[in-house]
Amino acid sequence: MDAAFRPMKAANAVAGAFVATLFAAGTAAACGEQITGATRHIESASYEIVFKSIPGPIETGKHFSLDFAVCPRGSAQQPDAVRVDAVMPEHRHGMNYRPVVVARGGGLYRADGLMFHMPGRWELRFDVVTSTGTERLPAATQLE
């Protein structure tokens, strides 16, 4: 009698896997959902980036870090590397420090060593590097 149920068990297992796949596709994780607290969001046609500063808010003359997620959209490639920098477009200069970006796995990164040395409008620049080129995603922020 047990042998009679084997085909049914196999069919149920296949159906269950199919339903689980459909459910997972319908509830795909949102970009950067692992990053908790106050986050910012920028996107292009190819990538979505969710980030937050640590500590937040950013203060003039104090080092800070960024936790961020880079999520490819559509057929975009996973990044080979990600760079972070910041400039003051109106003043035509950048930071006095060069941040270090470390991949944490699963599309998550941390950039350490950032500092905005003066108040004003800053533009964070996330460079997503792939084998086909580099795409820059900017995010403006005002520092009082």
Can you give a write-up of this model?
The chain is of the alpha+beta class and 144 residues long. The strands form two sheets. Strands 1-2-3-7-6 form a five-stranded antiparallel beta sheet, with no helix packed on it. A four-stranded antiparallel beta sheet has the order 5-4-8-9, with no helix packed on it. 17% of the residues lie in helices and 46% in strands. It is built from one helix and nine strands.
Q: What is the number of helical segments per DSSP (H or I, 4+ residues)?
A: 1
Shape: globular
Helix content: 10-25%
**N-to-C order of helices and strands:** HEEEEEEEEE
> Structural class, from secondary structure content?
alpha+beta
Radius of gyration: 21 Å
Low-confidence stretches: 4-27
Number of strands: 9
Q: Termini, distance in Å?
A: 77 Å
Mean pLDDT: 86
Measured by DSSP, the beta-strand proportion falls in over 45%
The strands making up the biggest β-sheet line up spatially as 1-2-3-7-6
In summary, what is this structure?
17% of the residues lie in helices and 46% in strands. The chain is an alpha+beta fold. It has a five-stranded antiparallel β-sheet with strand order 1-2-3-7-6, with no helix packed on it.
List the helices and strands and how they pair.
Blueprint (H helix, E strand, L loop, with lengths): L1 H25 L13 E4 L3 E8 L9 E9 L8 E8 L4 E2 L5 E6 L2 E7 L5 E11 L2 E11 L1
Summary tags:
9 strands; 144 residues; five-stranded antiparallel beta sheet; alpha+beta
